[in-house]
Amino acid sequence: MNHSAKFIFSVSFALAAALASGTAFGDEPNQKLDPARLAVSVSDSDAPQTVRTTDGRELKLVWNDEFNGEGLPDAKKWTYEVGYIRNNESQYYTDARLENVFQKDGVLTIRTIKEKYNIEGKPKNKGLKEAEYTSAAIETIDTASWLYGRVEVRAQLPTGKGIWPAIWMMGTNIKQIGWPGCGEIDVMEYVGHTPHRAHGTIHMRKKGGKNWEVVSKGSSLLLDRPEEQYYVYTLEWTPEKMLILVDDKPVLEFKKSEEESKTGVWPFDKPHYIILNTAIGGAWGGEIAEDTCPTDFKIDYVRVYQ
Ligand SMILES: [Ca+2]
Is 130 an active-site residue? Predict the structure, then answer.
């Protein structure tokens, strides 16, 4: 999710390679949507207490949010990024504002809005009086973090030119050592200018590098209408590797044995927290179409197994 100009080229190159070799998900497009992909969990008991990883290990549920409440997300689990945060994006992230983030009928919605929103005197407002776009970014940095396990986020993606939703994680030591030294695991990113495709990417600091010197590796998977139905975006994380999956189909494998030797660093042996957001514009979202907003990023649940 963090993209500086310095490494956007390498990311783009990796993505271009991924696009060239991208595999279709298997479902024939233009068929009827699968009812199972439209249904959502509406009870906390819908979350299985155990799950089996793709390599056959049984893990136990340690944290989840099925989003069965009403209104704002549970303040015991989620806090807010507020303001203009990164990547020269166009949205102002609002602070616990129902218009931009709410639970209803078992689903959390992050909504982008094109509107004149007063940000005079508000945090990280770039000295502006009015925002042109609003959205929300929620995170567990102050409430929960995990080292290893399986993270599942079931979601239906917003779309439109300029839109850039993400399900991602960063090291909780970001407050001490900054980004990208803290490590970044992008379990799912999507950009409206290249629809139907889920991207998985890992970022970490280059050996001896400065803040902007980043090693990135990404790949992607073409999905059947992820904007209209739910998929499970998953990270399986062990001391040896990270595996990013969509409905248990591999998107990206990132092995310590291969990557640590190239970079001399491995930030993925420390706890990471979860961030859910929709950005608009910026380094990767690009040009925003007049009719893109409003958009809804719908999240059925977040489940963490260890
Ligand atoms: Ca749910």
Answer: no
